[in-house]
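User: Teach me something about this protein's shape.
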Amino acid sequence: MAKAPDKTITTTVDETESPTTGKGRPTPTRREREAANQRPLVATGKEAQKAQRARLAEQRERQRVGLANGEEKFLPERDKGVQRKFIRDYVDARYSVGEAMIPVMVLVIVMSIVQNVAVQTTTLFVLWGFFILAVADCLLAGQRVSSQLRAKFGDDGLQKGNRWYTAMRAMQMKPMRLPKPQVKRREFPTL
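Assistant: First, the predicted structure itself:
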């Protein structure tokens, strides 16, 4: 019977040497690197534009939902912070005279159409009376919020503009407020 050939591995001197050092390719020139980094600012092609539009729409929707839910990272600067959250919860828990401002204004517009001087004069006095009540309510709410914030955070830790923020939130109808109210009526925040 014939012998099978011996399958021994023979190595040459070149294979046993250590591999070459370095990255194994030439360093790219500056022009080559800049050319590789250049991308169009606007997506080209219909598919790329559709994908970009869909991505932007999804991002805007996420921001809109985050703002409505009061998520801190989606809020504008004026709404950020623990104190502003406390103000929002306090104002949303109370009944405000200013919430009725839009319905009263619509009523005034309707009543001003009437061609009777007595009705128009009465409407004007009612409008001014309502406006004075709304301003007084905003001042009272601002005073109460300021005293509660002072008790909770101290005099030194108060943000500027808390009273104005309280008044502007109190003048809006509850369903139209952003961020959306997170508490029900009479669920006042605790100190």
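Now, about its shape. Residues 110 and 123 are 10 Å apart (CA to CA). The chain has a mean pLDDT of 86. If you'd like, I can walk through any region in more detail.
User: That's plenty for now, thanks!
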